[in-house]
Amino acid sequence: MFAVNGSTFLNNSLSGVPRVFPRSTQRVAAPLVVVAAVSSNGRPGDRNVSVLVENTSKEMVESATSSSSPSAIDKEAKSTVGGGVEDVYGEDSATEDMHITPWTVTVASGYQLLRDPHYNKGLAFTEKERDAHFLRGLLPPGVVSQEIQVKKMMHNMRQYQVPLQRYMAMMDLQERNERLFYKLLIDNVEELLPVVYTPTVGEACQKYGSIFRQPQGLFISLKEKGRILEVLKNWPEKKIQVIVVTDGERILGLGDLGCQGMGIPVGKLSLYSALGGIRPSACLPVTIDVGTNNEKLLEDEFYIGLRRRRATGQEYSELLHEFMSAVKQNYGEKVLIQFEDFANHNAFDLLAKYGTSHLVFNDDIEGTASVVLAGLIAALKLVGGALADHRFLFLGAGEAGTGIAELIALEISKQTGAPLEETRKKIWLVDSKGLIVRSRIESLQHFKRPWAHEHEPINNLADAVKSIKPTVLIGSSGAGRTFTKEIVESMSSFNEKPIILALSNPTSQSECTAEEAYKWSEGRCIFASGSPFAPVEYNGKVYPSGQANNAYIFPGFGLGLIISGAIRVHDEMLLVASEALAEQVSHENLEKGLIYPPFSNIRKISAQIAARVAEKAFQLGLATRLPQPENLVRYAESCMYSPNYRTYR
C-alpha cells in the first residue's frame, strides 16, 4: 500500500500496462492509473507500480500524475529546452554515452488507452467514455458499434488477395484491439481459421523474421539457461492457465524453423481463446530456442533466433527440465503445458518424462489422435460395422501416426474388452522403409515397435494397400501427393466406401487433394484432410471437403481440464473427447459425406467436449475444483471468455 496525494492505493507489480479488473455484467469497469518506472538496478520487483483507482476523476488523475515528480527520479535529467519545455525524460540533455532511467507516468486514459490492445475499443468508445477518459479530439466524432467494426474489418480482409497479407492484418488487429480480434474470429471462424492457423500460419512461420513486428509470448533461449524462472517473471500476466510451447524443430510439415516457430504457439492460443473460451490473459505462448539446423535460416539476415546448430543431448534436456520446473514453480501444478511441433525423438520422451509430474498434453500426438478417432466413429454411421470390424493402414509412423493408431487401439479395447496387444494387430503402419513388420523390430525406434506385426516385408505403400486391403487409409507422413491414383483406385476396388484421411499440413503437404480423392474413387470415398480444401464437383454432384482439424479438440479439451482443476491428463479423457465430438455430427452432415460438424458451432462443441473431459477428471479423481458442478455443460459455457466490449466509467 502507498499514498498518492493523501489517498491510499494498492501496490501491484503484476503488470506494467493498465488493467480493468473483472466485474459482474451489471457493473461497469473503473480505469486504472499506472505509475510505471524501471529502476536502474533492474530487479523485476521494482519494475513497475500499478495503482488501482476505484472511482477515478480527472482531478484525481491529474493529482496522481503530478505527484510523481521527475526530480525525485532523475534530477540531473531535468532541464528547460526549446522555449520553456521541460525535458523531464532527459532525452535532450543526455548523449549517447550517458545512462538514463527510462521512467514513464501513464494513465489508462487518453492516448495510452487507445494503444492498449486489452482495452482499446476504437470508434466504439461512447460519448460518455470519451469525456471520462480524455479521448476528445483523439478520435473522429463518429461512434460505431462493435458489430459495425466487425463488418468493416471483414470487408477489408476480403480485399487482400494474398493469404499472408490477411494473416498480418489479423495479427495487427490483435496487437491493436484484442476484443475486436476475437469477436471477428468467433463470428467468422470458418473463413478466418485458415488465416490465423493452417495453412497460412505455415507460411507465416517460414517468413516470421521478415514479418516480425511486435513480440508475442516468451522467447527462452540457451542464453537464459539458469535464469528461466526470472524470465517467466518478466511476463506481465501472473495467472496463467495454458502454455503452448515449441522448440520449432518440426513445424507442421515444413521442418526445422527454429525460433520462427513462434507463430504456432501464438496461433494455437488464439484458438484456445476464440474456440475454447480461455481468456487471452491466461494464455502464454513460448518458444524454446536451442538453435536450428536449417542452413537457410542461419544465413538469413532477418532471422530472429540463435545463430547456431541445434543443441541436443544433455544440453537440450537440462534446458527443457529447467523450463518445466520453473513453470510449475511459478504457475502451480494446474497450468496446462501443451507441447507443440517437437520432433519425434523429443516429443515422445517429453510426454513420457513429464506426464506423471505435470499437466501436459501433446497436440501432435494426442490432439490429432482424438480428432481422427472422432471422425472414424462418425464415419461408421456411413460405412457400417463397429470400429473393431475395420482394418487401418497408415502412411507415416511418427508422433501423429503412432498417436492416432494407439488411440484407435484403446477405443477398440474399450468397446470389445480385448487386450490392447490384440487390438493393435488391426492397425498397420508404413514408414520411409516400407511396412513395419516383425523382422524389422531391432532397427525400429521404440514408439514404432508395438506396430511390428508378422508379415512379409513390403517396400512401398501401393503394395501394402493391395496386401493388407485396409478399409481406412490414413496419411500422416508430411509428404505431399503420396496417395496416388493407383492407391486410391485400389482402396475403391475392395471397399464400397473407402475412408481416406489425408492429414498432413499445410495444404502443399497433403497426401492427396479432395478433388483427387473424390475423382479417383468415383465419388465413393469418405474424405477428410488436415488443411481445408474447397468443395469438389464430380458428375454433377458437389462433395464438401471435411477437415480433421485439431481445433475441434484441443480448445474444449483444455477448457475441460481447467474447469475441473485437473492435475494430470489421462487417456480416457482423450477417448471421451472423441466420443463427444462424434456425437456433434448431425444426420444432415453425414448425408453430405461430412464426418465433422461445421466450425460455425465450435464454441458449443467445445463446451460439450469440456464437460465430458471434466466429468472424466472427476471420475478418475484427478479434479481439484470441488464440488463438481451439477450441469457441467452449462458451467463450461459460463466460464467462457466473451469478446464483447465492456463499458468503462
Automatic annotation (TrEMBL):
Entry's cofactor comment: Divalent metal cations. Prefers magnesium or manganese.
GO biological processes: malate metabolic process
Record InterPro entries: Aminoacid_DH-like_N_sf, Malic_enzyme_CS, Malic_N_dom, Malic_N_dom_sf, Malic_NAD-bd, Malic_OxRdtase, NAD(P)-bd_dom_sf
Binding-site residues for (S)-malate, renumbered to this chain: 250, 505, 549
Residues in coiled coil: none
Cofactor(s) listed: Mn(2+); Mg(2+)
NADP recorded as keyword: yes
One Pfam assignment: Malic_M
Family: Belongs to the malic enzymes family.
Protein name: Malic enzyme
Originating organism: Fraxinus pennsylvanica
Lineage of producing organism: Eukaryota, Viridiplantae, Streptophyta, Embryophyta, Tracheophyta
